[in-house]
Every structure is written in structure tokens, then in C-alpha cells.
Amino acid sequence: MKKPIKRYAPPVVWALFIAVLCGLPGKDIPHISLLELLNFDKFVHASLFFILVILIYRAVRQTPNRKNAMVYALCLSVPYGGILEILQQELFKDRAADLLDFTANSLGCLLAWGYISFQENRKIKSLIYSYFNPKN
Fold this sequence. Notes:
By secondary structure, the chain is an all-alpha fold. It has one domain (4-132). Helices cover 75% and strands 0% of the residues. It has helices at 4-23, 33-37, 40-60, 69-90, 99-132. Helix 1 runs antiparallel to helix 3, helix 3 (40-60) packs across helix 5 and helix 4 (69-90) runs antiparallel to helix 5 (99-132). The radius of gyration is 18 Å and the shape is elongated. The relative contact order is 0.15.
């Protein structure tokens, strides 16, 4: 088992990276009209939180709490997205809370859950198949 600092460093660093991006003043964020038309901002939010859930899940899977790794990942990531939106409204300069950003954050978390569930299910099916159809 990895040491706790080494295990949790990737999700913590990624969470701090997200916080820095969310804390940037609005005027420092590039505005590209084509990307705004495609709601690129929402895609970025979903992607950032998709990665966060995967990193937390991988860290927790290496602990005795591995059975609840996805619960921990979701219970940390979704509220974190909400807290960042509140901080954008109350603390960060030239930023405002956006319910659609929080929705995109949460959607990214749920997509990560689906992705991980699909991967786990695929591994289980492969194990069952190899048990009943051994290669000789």
C-alpha cells in the first residue's frame, strides 16, 4: 500500500488546480466567441470534475475503505463543485456563481461514475468468461 501523502497527492493537487482556475478573475479568462457558442466552458467544468472523481476513486481504492471508493469520490467532488461556485460568488474577484457550472461539475462526476462502473463491469465479465472458457 502506498503512503497516504503519495496516494492522495494527485487528487489534492488536481482539486487545487481546479480551485485556482475557478478563482481566476473573469477578465483573465480568454473569451473566444466560437467556443462560447459551443458552451466550451461547461465541457471544461465537466471534464475537470470527471478527472477529479477518477483520481479520488483511485486513491481510495488503495485503502481499507475500497468498497466505498465511489461513494467517497462522489461525496467529496459534488459538494466541492458547489463550494467553489459559492466562493466564486462571495470571495473571488470578478466571478459569480452559476447554477449551470455546478450542474456541469455534477454531470462530470456522474459521467466518471458511469465510466468507472462500466470498466469494473467489463473486468468482472472478463473474469467470468475466462473461468468458464479456460484456454488450454
